[in-house]
């Protein structure tokens, strides 16, 4: 397993150096970006089992604030990143506190509604660009504006952030927080009766998740150089995170990464092959895939993997009765 | 005077919201299942109406019926093909399944009908009635009244008929219902059929007055969620009341504060409600 | 992750095969449209228009006299080479637009790009083209800042929001001078990208023109607009300007009739009013409404009429203004490609900069095509058309009018 991990890491590190076509390098960066936001969502959606359908609010905060600082006050967008994280943490507290009382579906609905509310407010707020959106620096001589001509610097920055996120997640998994979150996911009432401070730990998970989602949004803003209510705060942004995580396997460390590696190239490929026809085939395929995952393998590919590899380690039960 | 006009308009639209949400609340209350594809049922109802009118040139009662039957069958089919299996799984799968279904339905309609907006050819329901200074568009009046009537009919079906009590029994306690000899599977399929049918009729009714395209489902779904939450999950009378209320609030806020705020107010209400009174007006906790 | 590597290899293989299957003498151009998502109707109509334009350039059409490159087959200065357009769906998403532009440039190796409708996508897509030094002809995105970033590779053929606003304001000022009562103007715009930028420009221009302005912003995709119409009924503006998409505009017109309020004149800002479903739905109740267009079918036997017939044969509908602008942008690009005589981006850029097309060489009613330093066509213009009977006829400016203006509008009244 160790060698596998090493090989994997090397593969990710070497990818843009092997596939030097700019389009593939760019695609790689996009895969990593999707992996970051899905892994961030995974902390609260997978490990804690709280299905938030409104994570776009954190992503949007992360995308909007750096560009806001740039467009209105000509400050380096990089300054907006910690600001956005702070705002997202605040948002997580404000949203999480009342909604974590709610069970299952109610919580999901609440997060969806709050995100939509924020999106509508932003699309009517002139300062934040209203419906037109905000622009970042198009071509800049300053390195801290992070406008790179090539996708390779983005790729490595995203890879570093992903590595950090996965390390933090792994650490959390092993810690008391992780232990309690698993208990909460298994059964909230039971966890509470065992003395787990449910609400507090759910909030911690949400805040951690929000911070990294915000960071993902900021990275998106740097790479794309533009954000508007739909691309930063739309429902599809939230749903995409969930689908990527679910495809790979929620509640697992590398599930979201696996989901990203498969889904993002698939989305690009279907759009490239079928998109030009204009019949909406891309989305029929996308919708179909989601339904299939939900129907047949909700645990995602990681679960499928475990199922396929488990039998080898199990032996047939020994005979019960003596001969 | 204008205020009264605004109110009446809001209530008529609200009645249609009520009808289209009543199915959703039934499913939600009965199976604790959120159907993110509900808006697409409304959209399909609109297209069924379109196809029937273009092919046969008939009036609203026929294409309304066609929408009801067509969507009923679709709802039952979806239950057996997808929902039944997914219900036993984790919540994530439930949410994903209907999201994916929504995309699938929306883009299949896109593929078949193209994304262009369509309007129904003029039907018999044209003209405006002047009722004491209030101008009532006939199509909207009929839509509103029929929608309210059908919602009430659904409520009566659930509370006054044998089938209805079986549905409610399954909603209340699945296990107990099974012990009483009721087949929960059948009841749930029936509920899905009714849910889709009511959405479909609502769509057909709206199609008379509003232009539509494959993309309209999303807006209706969100409205339905708000109405269902406000009215209380599982309560059809709640959906009626909430639908009327939401229609009214939308109209009044659009008139007084400006149209963009109507969405903000409705969502804000939704969030506040989830926090303060999740069971809604007439739901049970 | 073997699956990923395999997928990559498979994709590469497919693309290699596709590339090898290329005909030798073609010039490749990339076109990006919103073929899915909310603007799909416009994107699909534009795609059909471009396909027609490709046919006109690549094949000999002697009946289209005076239209550059129509009478010959292919591009004469490139040995009759044909233009091949790689069509892409950007889904209305700026990130997809960015990615696909990159693909078109680095994989498909297109000589130039055309697009995109959404201003948000135009911003990101043109930035990629700028970085790689590939000419990008903007066919119809109207946000002003697309040509305000100091880019050297972006060229916009179409008029922009401020042009439209000025046209309306000039028109109303003319009418007022001619003695018509016009004091107050209501501007109703939907609140997405398009509605906001154009609506704001119009409100500004009207204020500068000395009119009393009331701006009502509404949510796109509303299911009911009665409250707004009732507001209008109370305020009684002389002129109402509508900036929105098809469904909203149809809804508004119907609601105006239901609630019995007809302003002296309605002006529709293209978009919804030009959509193929608008006239069939509400044409009979909005007789006399004004619209803007740089496209008019023209007299029977004219080049524009022939183009319209060809488009109708292909899609079953008349050519609309937006799709017409896409076609015109394509012809401008084709003309530049021909003058460049090569697929070298720098030569194409130079040719585009030197573009100087006369009105007689255009299918659209611009006063010409000439780009300034920012890449904007300074001769882009629009005229106002009026719904009289079953079609729109141009009524202003007078030197381009083919019909007489009816004022006030008849609406649903006989």
What does this molecule look like?
The complex is a heterotrimer of chains A (323), B (285) and C (414). Chain A is mainly alpha-helical. Helix content of chain A is 72%, strand content 1%. Chain A has helices at residues 2-18, 22-47, 56-73, 80-99, 104-123, 152-174, 176-186, 188-193, 198-224, 229-233, 235-248, 255-274, 281-296, 300-309; strands spanning 134-135, 226-227. Chain A has a two-stranded antiparallel sheet with strand order 1-2. The two termini of chain A are 40 Å apart. The model of chain A has no long low-confidence stretch (mean pLDDT 88). Chain B has a two-stranded antiparallel sheet. In chain B, helix 1 packs parallel to helix 5 and helix 2 runs antiparallel to helix 3 (60-87). The radius of gyration of chain B is 18 Å and the shape is globular. Chain B starts with a helix and ends in a 9-residue tail after the last helix. Chain C contains 13 helices and twelve strands. In chain C, helix 2 runs parallel beside helix 12 (321-340) and helix 12 packs across helix 13. Mean pLDDT of chain C is 88; it is low at 20-24.
What is the helix content of chain A?
Answer: over 70%
SSE string of chain C, helices as H and strands as E: HEHEHEHEEHEHEHEHEHHEHHHEE
- The poorly predicted ranges of chain C are 20-24
Uncertain segments of chain A are: none
User: Proportion of β residues of chain A?
Assistant: under 5%
Largest sheet of chain C: 7 strands, mixed
Structural class of the helix and strand makeup of chain C? alpha/beta
Counting copies of identical and different chains, the oligomeric state is: heterotrimer
Strand order of the largest sheet of chain C: 7-6-8-9-10-11-12
Overall, the morphology of chain C is globular
Work out the helix count of chain A.
Answer: 14
Distance between the amino and carboxyl termini of chain C: 72 Å
Shape of chain A: globular
Number of strands of chain A: 2
- Overall pLDDT level of chain A: 88
Q: Strand-and-helix sequence of chain A, N→C?
A: HHHHHEHHHHEHHHHH
Helix content of chain C: 40-55%
How many strands, what sense, and barrel or not for the largest sheet of chain A? 2 strands, antiparallel
């Amino acid at each position: 397993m160790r060698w596998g991990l090493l090989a994997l890491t090397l593969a990710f590190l070497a990818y843009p150096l092997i596939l030097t076509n700019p389009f593939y390098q760019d695609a790689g960066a996009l895969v990593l970006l999707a992996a970051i936001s899905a892994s961030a969502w995974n902390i609260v959606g997978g490990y804690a089992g709280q299905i938030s359908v409104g994570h776009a609010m954190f992503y949007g905060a992360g995308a909007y604030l750096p560009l806001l600082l740039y467009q209105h006050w000509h400050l380096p967008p990089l300054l907006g990143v910690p600001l956005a994280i702070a705002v997202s943490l605040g948002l997580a507290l404000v949203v999480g506190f009342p909604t974590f009382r709610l069970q299952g579906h109610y919580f999901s609905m609440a997060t969806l509604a709050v995100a939509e509310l924020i999106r509508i407010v932003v699309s009517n707020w002139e300062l934040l660009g209203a419906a037109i959106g905000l622009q970042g620096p198009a071509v800049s001589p300053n390195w801290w504006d992070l406008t790179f001509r090539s996708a390779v610097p983005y790729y490595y920055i995203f890879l570093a952030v992903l590595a950090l996120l996965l390390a933090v997640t792994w650490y959390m998994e092993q810690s008391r927080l992780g232990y309690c979150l698993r208990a909460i996911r298994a059964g909230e009432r039971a966890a509470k009766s065992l003395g787990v401070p449910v609400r507090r730990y759910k909030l911690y998970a949400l805040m951690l998740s929000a911070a990294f989602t915000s960071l993902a949004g900021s990275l998106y803003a740097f790479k794309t150089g533009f954000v508007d209510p739909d691309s930063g705060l739309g429902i599809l942004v939230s749903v995409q995170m969930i689908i990527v995580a679910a495809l790979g396997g929620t509640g697992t460390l590398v599930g979201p990464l696996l989901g990203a590696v498969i889904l993002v190239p698939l989305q690009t490929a279907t759009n490239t092959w079928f998109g030009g026809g204009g019949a909406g085939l891309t989305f029929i395929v996308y919708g179909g895939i989601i339904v299939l995952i939900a129907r047949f393998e909700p645990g995602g590919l990681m679960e499928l993997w475990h199922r396929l590899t488990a039998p080898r380690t199990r032996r047939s039960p020994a005979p019960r009765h003596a001969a | 005077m204008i205020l009264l006009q605004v109110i009446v308009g809001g209530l008529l639209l609200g009645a249609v919201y009520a009808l289209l949400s009543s199915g959703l609340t039934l499913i939600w209350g009965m199976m604790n299942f959120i159907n993110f594809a509900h808006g697409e049922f409304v959209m399909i109802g609109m297209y069924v109406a379109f196809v029937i009118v273009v092919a046969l040139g008939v009036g609203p009662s026929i294409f309304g019926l066609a929408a009801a039957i067509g969507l009923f069958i679709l709802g039952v089919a979806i239950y057996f093909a997808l929902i039944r299996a997914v219900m036993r799984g984790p919540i994530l799968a439930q949410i994903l399944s209907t999201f994916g279904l929504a995309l699938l339905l929306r883009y299949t309609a896109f593929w078949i009908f193209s994304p262009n907006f369509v309007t129904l050819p003029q039907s018999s329901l044209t003209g405006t009635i002047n009722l004491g200074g209030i101008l009532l568009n006939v199509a909207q009046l009929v839509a509103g009244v029929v929608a309210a009537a059908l919602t009430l009919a659904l409520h009566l079906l659930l509370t006054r008929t044998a089938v209805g009590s079986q549905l409610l029994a399954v909603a209340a306690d699945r296990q107990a219902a099974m012990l009483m000899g009721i087949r929960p599977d059948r009841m749930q399929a029936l509920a899905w059929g009714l849910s889709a049918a009511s959405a479909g009729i609502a769509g057909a009714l709206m199609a008379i007055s509003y232009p539509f395209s494959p993309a309209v489902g999303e807006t209706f779904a969100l409205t339905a969620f708000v109405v269902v939450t406000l009215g209380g999950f599982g309560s059809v009378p709640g959906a009626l009341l909430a639908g009327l209320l939401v229609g009214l609030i939308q109209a009044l806020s659009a008139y007084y504060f400006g149209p963009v705020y109507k969405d903000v107010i409705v969502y804000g209400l939704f969030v506040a409600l989830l926090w303060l009174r999740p069971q809604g007006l007439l739901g049970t906790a | 992750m073997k699956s990923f590597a395999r997928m990559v290899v498979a994709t590469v293989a497919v693309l290699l095969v596709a590339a090898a299957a290329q005909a030798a003498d073609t010039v490749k151009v990339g076109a990006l449209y919103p073929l899915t998502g909310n603007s799909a109707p416009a994107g699909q109509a534009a795609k059909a228009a471009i396909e027609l334009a490709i046919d006109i350039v690549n094949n000999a059409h002697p009946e289209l006299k005076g239209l550059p490159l129509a009478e010959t087959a292919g591009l004469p200065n490139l040995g009759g080479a044909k233009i091949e357009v790689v069509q892409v769906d950007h889904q209305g998403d700026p990130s997809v637009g960015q990615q696909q532009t990159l693909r078109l440039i680095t994989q498909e190796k297109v000589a130039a790009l055309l697009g995109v409708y959404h201003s948000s996508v135009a911003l990101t897509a043109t930035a990629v083209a700028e970085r790689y030094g590939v000419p990008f002809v903007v066919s119809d995105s109207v946000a002003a800042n697309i040509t305000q970033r100091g880019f050297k590779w972006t060229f916009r053929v179409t008029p922009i929001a401020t042009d439209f606003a000025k046209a309306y304001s000039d028109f109303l000022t003319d009418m007022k001078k001619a003695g018509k009562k016009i004091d107050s103007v209501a501007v109703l715009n939907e609140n997405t990208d398009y509605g906001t930028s154009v609506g704001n420009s119009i409100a500004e221009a009207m204020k500068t023109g000395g009119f009393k302005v009331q701006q009502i912003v509404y949510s796109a995709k509303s299911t009911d607009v009665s409250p707004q119409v009732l507001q209008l009924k109370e305020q009684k503006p002389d002129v109402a300007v509508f900036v929105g998409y098809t469904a909203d505009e149809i809804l508004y017109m119907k609601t105006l009739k239901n609630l019995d309020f007809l302003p002296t004149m309605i002006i529709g800002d293209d978009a919804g009013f030009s959509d193929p479903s608008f006239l069939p739905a509400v044409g009979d109740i909005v007789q006399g409404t004004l619209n803007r267009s740089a496209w008019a079918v023209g007299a029977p036997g004219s080049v524009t009429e022939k183009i319209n017939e060809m488009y109708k044969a292909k899609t079953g509908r008349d050519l609309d203004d937006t799709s017409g602008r896409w076609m015109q942008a394509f012809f401008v690009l084709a003309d530049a490609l021909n003058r460049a005589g090569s697929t070298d981006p720098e030569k194409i850029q130079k040719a585009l900069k030197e573009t100087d097309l006369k009105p007689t060489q255009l299918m659209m009613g611009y006063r010409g095509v000439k780009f300034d330093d920012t890449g904007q066509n300074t001769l882009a213009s629009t005229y106002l058309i009026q719904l009289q009977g079953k079609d729109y006829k141009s009524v202003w400016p007078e030197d381009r009018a083919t019909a007489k203006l009816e004022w006030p509008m008849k609406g649903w009244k006989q």
